[in-house]
Amino acid sequence: MKKWHTIWLLAFVPVLLAGCKKDKQPTPPPPDTTLMEVELYNHFVPQPLKSYLFVSDHAGKVIAATECAADGSYVLMGDEGVAVPETFQVSILHFDIYWHSILLNIQTFQQVSRDSWKIGGSNPDTIGTVKVEYANLPDGHGAILLSTPGYYNLTASANPSKLNLYRNNDPVLVKQQKHADGPRYFWIDQVVPGQLVPVDFNAMVPAAEQSTSLPFDVAFCEASLSGFQQAFTPESLPMVCHIDFGNGQLQNFIRWSFPADRFTDFQTEISLPDPLAIDNRFIDRNFGPIPAAFNKLDVGIDIVSGAGPEVKLNTSGDFNVLAVKFSDLGPGEELLNWVVYTSDTTTQIRLPELPAMITDFFTGLRRDSMQLEYVETRQYRDFQSYGEFVGAMYKPDFPAGPERLNMHAYRKVVPQGIRSFLMSR
Question: Per CATH, which fold does 124-206 belong to?
Fold first, then answer.
């Protein structure tokens, strides 16, 4: 029996030894090369046109790019085996038909980390139009403002007008901005496509009025007031209810007029010429109650050089975002506007390279043909820093672009006549 026990143990030893071998370690997954996840919605991509997204490193080299033929979800990936940079530049190209030309808009955000963005169009597709017909239109009536949520027309014409509708049962506002007894308006609720809206100027009612004081006297300005019938959200459609360009007489206030008890929130935007440099502008934009006073941003901007797609500058003062705009009219009449957003400490900006998929489609479009148009220092009141600003852009729970935030700014414009001088400095 001992002999058989010994043989059995010797036969079992290899099995025990085999069971004691070290477990093979699983192969680690490859590094995640995802740079950005972007959802486009609400007709951001206007059919049959396209949009483009691309990511660049800090030197401007393209890391990833994608064509967006329609709304949907897009993922931008880096090359396999190449480390994803901690921060990079994200650019969004969106274009539309502008009169008889193509208007291309590029927004570039510098110093962006891996993120998920949700970018929506400003207006949905129109569902039709309504026709406004006048009765008892007085002589010398002046400008007439016609407005629906998302659309407006300021005209002096006495002919019937058509207004776009983006939703069923939206209201129509018709306002005579200047009248001997003060501004007056006509309002009708819940119109539908194809409806005829008769407007009797004898039945108009007085508009409510409220003023915003200005930091200095101006003869001309650009000012607009829009209302929201519900509390403002980034997807709300504004209903323009006042447009003001000044009347050539010096004044230190804007006198708004609007329908009383119709709106929950307002958007005001005022652009004033700098008294010391008429091409430069002070800008103040607010969402919420109508502000009592214009918020003037006191900063300094010195453009050291502006050669082609690059600018060197020095700034001073309290602000948190720098916005630099370049523009170009290409040989095919493509008008390109390119705005770069960066931090308040940036002193040099160079446009990133354009992906081949864009330059192959727009054969006349070249980055090196861009010219500096303006430098703008912005103070976004909802954020303490550029990092907070760019970290909040286009979040799924707050999909607001930079143009739908409370802001005051100073814009230094580079007149066309001196751009060649800047390029030679």
Answer: Immunoglobulin-like (2.60.40)
